[in-house]
Each structure stands twice: as structure tokens, then as C-alpha cells.
Fold each of these.
Amino acid sequence: MPGHLSGKVAIVTGSSSGIGQSIATRLAADGATVVIDYRNHPEGAEETKKQIEAAGGKGITLQADVSSLVDVQRLVDEAWQQLGSCDILVNNAGIEKSADFWDVTEQDYDAVLDVNLKGVFFLTQAFVRHLREAKRPGRIINISSVHEDMAFPHFSTYCASKGGLRMLARTLAVELGPLGITINNIAPGAIMTPINKKLLDDKPKLNALLKNIPLGRMGMPEDVAAIAAFLASDDAAYITGSTYVIDGGLTVNYHEQ
């Protein structure tokens, strides 16, 4: 539905590649002006901007590390200063680190929790403060994971961060509802993105995974972007505190090999 986000401004964190890039281009195609946030890859952010402009949309790039409170405050302040408002926040930036539980270091724990949970918490806080002050409604969309609910051995830090995101969204749905601000999670399963390159190159492992997915394929970033566009729109005005699982049926069919 092109144009149904016309006049809206959206921040999409981690939008220099993968799911974030796809969400940014989709929201722009639907009429939103998009703030393309990146941490380390300005060239990726510029590519996202090119894709947005090629589709007739508008975007600006801003560097911000979501694990830094100074950066998240600046990100929201800049969006308001440059674009006059900020109506939609997509908390997409995320990292994962694999380790046996007994080998997890404090450094790795901090790295994962700071981006995946603390960053979301305080960026959302900065976003909400501006909306409260302006007495405006808003939409918050967190890109979570099926692992907000499903065990993932050797990724305990990631699971802890996503489980936290699940309860944060539910609690904020109650607290922010009276302000007209909705918050929902999208929980992707196996999606074809650069982060999964190792898996895609390992055919036996990939085939074992595909056997667990009833739809028989990995998801595409566009599959996730479509749900984000819906949750950002007025069609989703009465939805809050929900998690949308997008996994081709993986969760309901999953069993350890």
C-alpha cells in the first residue's frame, strides 16, 4: 500500500545491511522518511539510501552505536531537528556471540546485552520522551527472534537479551498504551542475511535446518519488512504487546537433531 506512511518519520537501527536495510527500503517505499542508522559501515548505509532514493523515497544516514546512551539520545534528537518529528522506531540492531555457557566472558555478555537489550531500552526511552513532550502517538517495533521463547544452546547471552525484549515489550505496551504509543516484536526464524553466511555455505547443516521448516525454505528479509510495514501502519492501530513469529513454521515443528 504505497503512500500509507506518507508524512511519517521512521528510525531503523542497524539498517546498513540485512533485515534492517530491507525494512528501511520498505518503509520508504510506503512513504515514510527514514533515518538510516549504522554503527561501522557507512558504505552500507549509503547503499540503503541509494535503494530508497531509487524507489522515489527519502532517507538520511546517521551514525550511532545503540549501546551508547549518548549516541541514542543524539540519534533521536537529530531525527527531530532535521526532519521535524519521529513517529516510528524500529529497533533492529542486534548481535550474537556463540560460546558454551561455562566459557562466556563478561566482555561478550556486555557486548550482546548492551546492543540487544540496553540499547533498545534507552533508545526507546529517548523516542518516547520526545513523543510525550509533543503529545503525539507513535509506533515501536522490535526485531526480536524466535529465541525470545525457544532455547538456543551455546547462545545464552543472545537468548537472555531476546527473552528480556519479550517482557520489555509487554510491560511497555501497558505503560505506553495511554499515550497512544504501541509496541510490538517481530520474531524472525532462519532468515537469509549476511549473518547466516556460514550456515548457507554448510550444505548438510542447511539441509537439516530446512527439514525442520514446514515451508521448506529460509525466510527473506522482505518477509520481515512486510510485517514491519504493517505494524507501522494505521492498520495495526489496535495491536500492542504482541510478538509476530515469522519462521515458516520452524518453532512449532522444531526438534533437536
Amino acid sequence: MVRRATAPPEQESVAGCHTSVVFSDDRQWAGHLGAFVRSGLAKGQQVQYFADTTPPERVLRALTDAGIDAAGAVTSGQLSVSVAAQTYLAGSGFDPDTMIGLWHDAVEGAWASGYRGVRTIGEMSWGARDVTGADRLLEYELRIHHEVLERLPLTAWCFYDRRLMADEYVGVMASAHLTHRGEPHVAPRLRVAPLADRPGLLMSGSAGYDTRDAVAAAAAVISSGTASRTDLDLAALRHLDAASLAVLTEAAAGRPGGMPLLVRQPPSPLRRLLQLFPELESMVEVVDR
């Protein structure tokens, strides 16, 4: 079982703890990197950088060029630069459950070493490649908000290099964050994001065949939820096809302990389904506000 630590009072606002950072050149990358690391070191946090395509020595050189004593921070243990392939992508591939557990362990380890929390950057370009578990990255980005960031003093910036990923992919992934820095990203056909103030998800746009991966990620979050009540806000969802509807209702039926899914302002197809199958009423509660 994952250990649940309690965040100290000085934790930053949850909405600002999980940020997508989109850039398209090395200057922008270095600027975001320097600002993030400098702030973390000054706040007494342990800072971690997980590289994908960037050599670790280049990360350290960029920090040094920015006037940061990177070598000293590495020596003291406050800063680490590692490669994703040797950390959370090692072994059988990426697994959200394992990664969520590792964050709890990392924060506990940082506290034990006297740090005030953990500050991390992850290069996310591996998610667009044929990496085992990459299809669960969106699920992870959605789950980390309520399962990690609301509970721990962890600040995570996810780096999206537009030179390495398609615009549509960047749009989907960046939209799963509550805050954004850097270049604007393309609005995805279906946006899935965590709710800022309560456990649950917001789905907006159009859910169909071409967005089935995003729907599957939302369903995984719904079925794996640990909260007694989970909201699914569909007020801004323009279209929901039959296949997506089936995936979401199956996820609602699979919630642990039979806890109902609270659906806000669902589209008409879902309302008709509930009328045709009244047994679903114990799994889905509709709220029209």
C-alpha cells in the first residue's frame, strides 16, 4: 500500500504545483530550467531533473551558465539529474501506480534529509514514442493532481518540446494540467483535465473515435478513484459517441466499493442510456448544475 504523507502548511497552491511547459527552442528550455531550479534551491527543496533526450551534463552546464552552483547542489544532494530510461522507465516500462508510489517515497526521503519538499522537472518526449506504458501517460497526468499534489509538497513541471512531438499530442497532454507556461498549445479535440477543487475530471470538446485514447485515460481515472465521490463534469462536452459512452459507463460500474460517479450536466446520449437501463442509476448520479 502507498504511504500517504501529509503536506506541511507551507505547501504551494495545488493548482500551481503541476504545470505544463511548452517550448520550441533551446533558449526557452534553458530559461524555464534556470528559473525552476533557482527557485527550488532557494526554498530549501530537493530538486530533481528527469531527462529524456537531453544529456545530463548539458542540463548541468545550462544551470552553471545561468549562474547557479549546480555542481555544489549536486554534491550536497539537493540537486540530481538523471535519465528517465534509468528511473521511472526502467524495467518493464512506465506504470502510473508505481510512479505515484515513488513520489510518496521521494517526498518522505526529502523530509528525512531536511528538505522542505521536492521540485521536479520531467522531459515528456518519451510519451510520444513507442515506449511500454506510454499509452498510460495521460492517465498519470490526470491522477497525479488528486493522488499526489493535493497531499504532498511536490511541484512538478512537465517539459514538452514541440520539436519532438506532434502539436495535437502536446495539446492533449498540456491540457491535462491546471497551469501552463511557455508557448501556447493547440486546443485538443477533447480536453480531459482534473477538477481544481474536488476529485474528478472535466471533459470538454468532442469524444469520438479519434479521441478514444483520451476517453480511455478518463475511464481509467474514474475506475481507479479512491475518493468516496468523484465528479465528471460534462457541461462543455459537445459530442459523445456510443463507444465513448460505453467506456465511461463501464468505468462507472467498475468503481471500487460501488461508489457512484457524480455526472454534471451530461449530454443527451448519456441521459437516454440511464433511462433505458435504470440499473445504472446506482452507479451514476446526474446533477444538472
Amino acid sequence: MTISAGPTRGVLEEACALAGLNPAGAESVRIAENEIWRLPGGVIVRIARPGQWKAAVREVLVARWLADNRVSAVRALPYEQPIEAAGRPVTFWVELPPHEIGTVMDVITLLKQLHPLPVPDLPLDQLDPFVRVAERIEAATSLPEDDRGWLRDRHAELRKQWERRPAGLPECVVHGDAWVGNVARTPEGPVLLDFERASVGPPEWDLVSTAVKMTTTGAVTEVEYAEFCEAYGMDVTKWEGYELLAGARELRMTTYAAQHAATRPEWQAEARYRVDCLRGRAEPRPWHWKGIM
């Protein structure tokens, strides 16, 4: 979807000038937390938030590592990158061929390529399932203070549980946000996208993203989920740590909606509904949460 780009056009033009690219004819693809532009000639430009230099570096390094290991993933262009423009990290990528959103089975196909790889000598942090949750709660100014206080308490509770989480599968490189929205289905097969949250941690975290789509939101059917589990060889909902990881994922999904509802009134009802669900003020799971952005 192409939407109004606002003042970020200047960031794009500065970054392209530094990279030796021509921004003429650029089209905005998505303007959200990260801003995506398409240049003529098959180049995608990703403008990250200020302060996200480390994450942008990691994205490029992980993409190149995946290419070296023949994992089907979006490819970073062979430039020295990221580039800093107006205080924001900017990266450049090969545009994908015509594609559609991936499927549950596409997700598992790619995770089975990723998870067995040896952990590389790259600046990968340990997985933090609560990254930016505190900031999102503080930014969620459209919520009543009582709800924000409850979210803070829930965040603290889950963090304590995370520190003493049960053992599971051996740690590996995890995508960090492995769901169908980060997989593109192309004529050549599925392609993995968005390595902003790539880290080292329990592979169960990557499996939980799909599991909660069945148990929490109902977006994935029981049949689809059974196929997912059979393909991977594990049903993460049967693991003793599932409630913890699912709770963390639900909190992330809720605070993401609440943060953006502060500046997008059309999403305020959805943000309040998600909080109501977590606080036991709505119907039992599965809930039917609407997509944000």
C-alpha cells in the first residue's frame, strides 16, 4: 500500500545521495515504525527509527549470513551499509519479484532452514521477548492510566518468569518475529523477511508466533496448526513454558496496538479491546483481534 510519506522523503533523498542512487520516481510502500520505499530498478530502501543503528547493522549481517548458508531470505545489496541520514539508519535491499503474504507452512519451511544452522560469530544479542514493551506502554496515552498500570505490572511479572523459564530445545539463531507477515510467497518459493529481532535464544519463541494465532486470536485453524507441528516435529503448546511465551507474545501484540492508537484514533477501540481480553473483561480465547497497520 502506498500512502502519504510526509517529511521522510528528505531522509530518503539524503540516503540515496550518500549511496550513489537516484531517488527520482521513488514510491512509498509502507510508512510505519520502519519506512519502506521502492526505487526504480529493483531497489528497496528501509528507513529505521532513530536510535536503531545496532538493529540495522544486525539486519544486514544476518541477511548476508543467510545468503551464505543458502537460506531463502531477502538479500541486502552489496553496499557499505547501513547509511546514516538525518540521524536514521538506512539500508538497501533487492526487491522481491511479485509475491503475496506467506502461509503457515511457508513459515515452518523457513524455520527448518534457519534453526539447524550453527550460531555464527556475529553481534547477535540474547533474545529479549520484551524489547520496546516498556516504551510502548508509556507511549500508549490513549489508554486509561489504570490499564497502563496493569500492563506495567504484567510486563514485570512476565519478565520475572522469563528469568526462570523452563529448559527447552537447544538455543539457536531465532528470527524473533516469525509469522506469515514476515514471509513472502514468490513463484520461486517462500522468502524470509525482516531480521530486526534476530537473536540467539530458544527456538520455541519462533514457534509461539504461530501457536498464539490458534490459541489466542483464532487466525490459524486447528488443522493448519496440526500441519505446522507435524512439519516441525514439535507442538510448542504442549511445552511447559508455553504459557509464559504466549503471554509475552500477547503483551507485545497488545502494546504495539496501544502505542499506535495514541496517534491513530481509528485503532483505539482495538487497543482497548486487546487490553480487555488480557484483563479478563472479554470473552474467553480465542479472541478475534484485528490487524494493526
